[in-house]
Amino acid sequence: MKNILLSILLLNILSWDINGQSIKPIYPIPSSKQLNWQALEYYGFVHFNMNTFTNVEWGEGKEDPRLFNPSALDCAQWVRIAKAAGMKGLILTAKHHDGFALYPSKYTEHSVKKSPWKQGKGDVVRELANACKKQGLKLGIYLSPWDRFHPAYGTESYNQVYANMQKELLTQYGPIFEFWYDGANGEGPNGKKQVYDWKLFHSVVNKYQPQAVQFSDNGPDIRWVGNERGYSYETMWSPINKDEIYPGYPKFDDYRNGQEQGSHWVAPEVDVSLRPGWYYHPDQDSKVKSPDSLMRIYVASVGRNANLLINIPVDTRGLIHPNDSAALMGLRDLMKEGLKSRLIVSDKFMASSSVHGHPVQLIKDGSVSSFWAALQKDIHPTIQWNTMDARLANAVLLQEPIALGQRVKRFVITITDDSNQIEKLTGFTIGNKRIIPFKARKIKSIQVDFLDARGQVLLSNFDVLNITSTRNESLYH
């Protein structure tokens, strides 16, 4: 309900008209479900499947279903840890490339119904859906289009098989917030590759879960960031010409920054694993990313106009390993302190201009539905924060009201510390959220000069942060 109300508030501002000056959107703009998704910011991926038991990343489809037999599977444990870590949802690998399904599908013989786990009566998707519902997390589904087991793969009939499996997952397990595809497309058991019917696949999701966003290289709703290392880019536009690319597009790097004049709003998602691999491997127990590394990833993803999807490789017991849990709890603690506002009530804000009803003071209220608006004729507007009480900080946070489109193309931040030393930092896009780190010191003034934009400059939030490591030292020197 909160997300629905947020969307209504954001969409209502499209019609605001203050003293004769209309705040007009700059297209493309996000849909209500895209706004709801962007507000989540951070959620989890669970890679748990046949590959967990064969100790590989990509299976071949020839694996014996009897190998799948977790000894202590507990989806409630996954959800407890994810929720404690601050995640808003979990996306499950319902079927990976090898074709083994974690639920008893009517459309494949390669699934949990042929495994000894729960005498073939188990359903991992059901258990996770129930656990998410009980603890208030959202459920997402990853169903690989590639299937190295299914005999129909490589023929036109397989597209309907896949669509039927989609329907099962979309109609039997409650609300789905995200449906995740990837671009992998290799040969099936008959030696043929599949020509995927993306129009059909997208239509099934839109029919049965119209509020779910769909992820792939080109959307249709959200897109891959272009790497699996955990970061977005300094320039990151949510608009993109999505019809020019497709899942598995070989020249995706040409589109990784989005496009200023893109035809559709398809914001990026950063996917990264806690470990070197996406699936659990015992020899990687000592290679889990540290909380400090994960905090840097958060800043370089959510802090660069993307959402963050962190993968958790569940082990052969069917549990999250203690090392992975500890890393996530460490990240939670760093986020709790590092994302805490350093602003105080007595701080002063000034702007070069303001539209009546959209004063600069609105940028400190923490809301994305209110915003400062520069006058249209102010083509190089500025804002400035001043404090009489200089305080330790190492990052600036900026947000645009993206319901009205993404606007800012280039800006400069001027930081003045308590000894009157000045540092200038250049940024290129803002979008939903931008975090710009710098060397920690006591700051008394920050000015933002907006040098170029696609139209009237709007800013919903400004904040000052101090992001520290597990040693309580600055992450940015």
From TrEMBL:
Keywords associated with the record: Glycosidase, Hydrolase, Signal
Enzyme Commission code: 3.2.1.51
Family annotation (InterPro entries): FUC_metazoa-typ, Galactose-bd-like_sf, GH, Glyco_hydro_29, Glyco_hydro_29_N
Glycoside hydrolase family 29 N-terminal domain ranges (all copies): 65-331
Coiled coil region boundaries: none
Class of enzymatic activity (EC top level): hydrolase
Superkingdom of source: Bacteria
SUPFAM superfamilies found in the cross-reference section: (Trans)glycosidases, Galactose-binding domain-like
Gene3D superfamilies: Galactose-binding domain-like, Glycosidases
PANTHER family xref list: ALPHA-L-FUCOSIDASE, ALPHA-L-FUCOSIDASE-RELATED
Role noted for this protein: Alpha-L-fucosidase is responsible for hydrolyzing the alpha-1,6-linked fucose joined to the reducing-end N-acetylglucosamine of the carbohydrate moieties of glycoproteins.
Membership in a protein family: Belongs to the glycosyl hydrolase 29 family.
Protein name: alpha-L-fucosidase
Species in which this protein is naturally found: Aquirufa regiilacus
